[in-house]
């Protein structure tokens, strides 16, 4: 289900002027605080009435100011998980969840008990809201939104309040949710690793404008995106297929440019996984290095050199059908005589494709 | 207990309770609407409405009573209309006493409810809307339960105020035993006759007990608003 968004709104001192389209799946709205991310999903939910704009989910027009269409929030069927959870304080956890289902469209779907199990909140059902931790509140809010049988899910930094263990638990669930239901998800985040892991489409906002939008692997491997993502966080995302689990605890993966070895993954052979290779963890060598401890070396071609501010330089690389990104110093680039079209080898420090950054099926 | 108060005194207490009850009951929905409008509404004339609601608190009660007499007397524009249309008469009837008590207690009731409405985070109402609740459903399922203790506190306070209303009542509907002679009017009447002090004192004690009880109950309710809003 595609989603198209076009909005302009003057907040007095800050103006939002945004347009993007996504093919569905998980779309991440990424940007610093104050970039306008929350305003975009507020407009989708009908909580913000923009000066001008048009928003459509598949064929359903939620707002079109040129035709004076404005669907009120309660008829939009958006599942909105707020950053601050917004649970009803006069209701118990169970009653909050039931509230989600109360006005929902009729139909089959996971019930309250099943959702509570999935989110690990079954033991909390009879608690008062005041007795919940931040992470527990957020999970109840996600459950409540899901039970309202939404047509699109809007998540406003839902994991910001969670500890790492809970995050790691919820992320696969959100991935499954996106994959199984085909529910389009708009995910507001300022965490690059969450985006790398979850999103199919990435929209980067800056000062109320869209500065980059497109498939997540494309945006991530574009050296020009690096300053927006943060040079330390920048890096390519590439799909890989699990080939085999070796006896020494490593897993062999096939990417389009060759083979990679990672500490054992949970995924079964044949499964597709998503790898994130941070630019700062990629070294370049003119010849295939020998006598080196790094296991993962891919032959690559330089497609672009993008000097940044300071001593660094971003090198865009092609490896098979995938794009990679390496961040090295200008001095090294000059010493090696790097230029576009040059063929060389990328050495991926073995720590780079870390377990935590390996997502489930793309 | 029955022996402790004479029949005339009992009559005044009973009438007062009934008048205050009716006054509270009928002003409650109006007070909730006024409190919602004042706390949330953004409309032209909001300040004027605020002034109008508070007017009985500031005006001398005699003035309020006189204005009620002009408007709701049998020859008054509203009084005449209501008598012809609904057969409802206020002048020199207990209904008039209830009207006067209701008007005088209205500002207190609105203030208590308005405080409760202002303590409700509008973001919760937004969340309810995104879950499919219409405006009316949001009010009934989120706003109203959250402000309920505030409404009760306002009602209790208004009830106590209505019990004690004197100036507007005596101006509007006079002091007719069994019809419009409420507790304060009765005390006033007893004090006017020689030897009435004892009866007056008994009614004074009844008044103090009711007022104190109402105040304590109202405080307890107000505290519960805070708890409710915090989800405890």
What does this 3D model show about the protein?
- The complex is a heterodimer of chains A (362) and B (232).
- Chain A is α+β, with helices and mostly antiparallel strands and 362 residues long.
- In chain A, 23% of the residues lie in helices and 36% in strands.
- Chain A is built from nine helices and 20 strands.
- Chain A has helices at residues 37-45, 93-102, 112-118, 134-147, 164-181, 192-198, 216-221, 226-229, 330-336; strands at residues 3-10, 15-22, 26-30, 52-57, 60-64, 69-70, 78-81, 152-156, 185-189, 201-206, 209-215, 235-245, 250-255, 258-263, 272-278, 282-285, 296-307, 312-319, 322-329, 343-348.
- In chain A, the strands form four sheets. In chain A, strands 7-8-9-3-10-11 form a six-stranded mixed beta sheet, sandwiched between helices. In chain A, strands 2-1-4-5-6 form a five-stranded antiparallel beta sheet, with helices on one face.
- In chain A, strand 5 and strand 6 form a beta hairpin.
- In chain A, helix 2 (93-102) runs parallel beside helix 4.
- In chain A, 44% of the residues are buried.
- By secondary structure, chain B is mostly helical.
- Chain B is built from ten helices and no strands.
- Chain B has helices at 7-40, 46-58, 61-72, 77-86, 94-119, 122-130, 135-164, 167-173, 183-192, 197-229.
- In chain B, helix 3 runs parallel beside helix 8 (167-173), helix 5 (94-119) packs antiparallel against helix 8 and helix 7 (135-164) packs antiparallel against helix 10 (197-229).
- Chain B starts with 6 loop residues before the first helix and ends with a helix.
- The mean pLDDT of chain B is 90.
- The chains are: A alpha+beta (362), B mainly alpha (232).
